[in-house]
Amino acid sequence: MALIDIRNLTFEYPGSVEPIFKDLNLQLDTEWKLGFIGRNGYGKTTFLKLLMDKYSYEGLIIKPIPMFYFPFSIEEYDLMTLELLDALQPDLELWKLQREMNLLEVDEDTLYRSFSTLSGGEQTKILLALLFAEEERFLLIDEPTNHLDTHGREVVAKYLQKKKGFILVSHDRDFINNIVDHILTIEKSKIVLQKGTYDTWEKNKNLEDQYELEQNQKLRKEIRRLKQSAREKAIWSDKVEDTKIGDGPCDRGYIGHMAAKMMKRSKTIEKRYEKAIEEKNKLLKNIETIEPLQMNVIEHHAKYYIRAEDFTIAYENNNIFKPIEFTIESGDCIVFRGDNGTGKSSIIKAILGEEVPWKGKLEISKGITISYVPQRFSFISGNIDELVHEEKLDKTKFLTMLRKLGFSRGQFEIPIENLSMGQKKKIFLAKSMCEEANLFIWDEPLNYIDVISRIQIENMILEYSPTMILVEHDKRFIDKVATDIIEL
């Protein structure tokens, strides 16, 4: 057993209002399978990069073995895959890589194809194989599920179950639940390390929040009492001070002297109350409120919003999937599910009227208004004010939605291209929630989205029953919101 020892770690970005980490102390066993969760923007990736010495920090990080980070930084995607892997790890032993590829169900042929031609899932699995091809190192695996389909997640989960010695960042609750033996969580005002799985953390967090809510009721009553007492002392002092002024026979010098003493005492008591109030307010900070989200769902008079018969995507007369039939009516939440490359996003493009080759029958009722969240969003840039103006959004409603999704006010000033991937995705989701629409089409909406926000989105869909088409791989999410699943 070897320990990663973190002592008094303090780090803040230049210009930040407050540090990301302050005087953090942790000990992590290098044989743990450690799940790492928390809101987007709370500092998970920053923490991993600090372990990799990517940033300057105060404090001490003692690392007994080398650390490697996933995803790799890749610049030349057009290289042959084996050539790229050799560049990433020059001492690579091919037989060890092939062993791991076999466990991850990756064909050896992929080594001799251009890396850019591999699917996102193939790229993820072959890079994970590279990570685990060598021993005696601690691995930092940052959100590997974002490009994995349902089957790919099952394969990688089964693979990681048999491994040890890593930190895994993931927001897919079932995925992380099946793999880890410890959980590290960045919560609202503290970092918590405990033995167990995601379900362990959720159960303990709910119990803690319930206890804190009960204590907070008592604290708020105590704070109100302290504030009332402070006001009464101030009023009493003012009344004594007022007796210095008047026409009656009395020793005004003595009264003035006593009033000054009482005023000083009153101010001392008031400061003591203020300090007590401040200390008690600190105890109200860690509850992660799952605030309700809203949608602008508009009903349409049509019985069928969309109707498809004998429908398929076909390139050069080759069908991507077997012809399917489906109808979408008001209140339906349809999930298209299948492996990467089976045509899920192409179906969405066909519905949106984009140029994709399809066959069969696809009817969309006239007047249907669609709100769309794309799978890819790297093109977004500028600032939030510009986005609000270009998209003609209600600024107050839009910013309120982002706040509920975990944005701090300071993050509204950051250029969008400098935000995390999760925060960028939340901008698209919040935009869609603010739009009035009959039909909401979201292509892999949960990629990069934290656990708390996933629960918020689940609750919102269940409350508003919007008519939706989703492409998604998060099993727990699908089980909760889908009214029908179409397998491709």
From TrEMBL:
Residues 204-233, 259-290 form a coiled coil. The gene is abc-f. The lineage of its organism: Bacteria, Bacillati, Bacillota, Tissierellia, Tissierellales. Signal peptide: none annotated. The keyword Transcription regulation does not apply. Keywords: Coiled coil. Pfam families: ABC_tran. This is ABC-F type ribosomal protection protein. Residues 4-213, 306-488 form the ABC transporter domain.
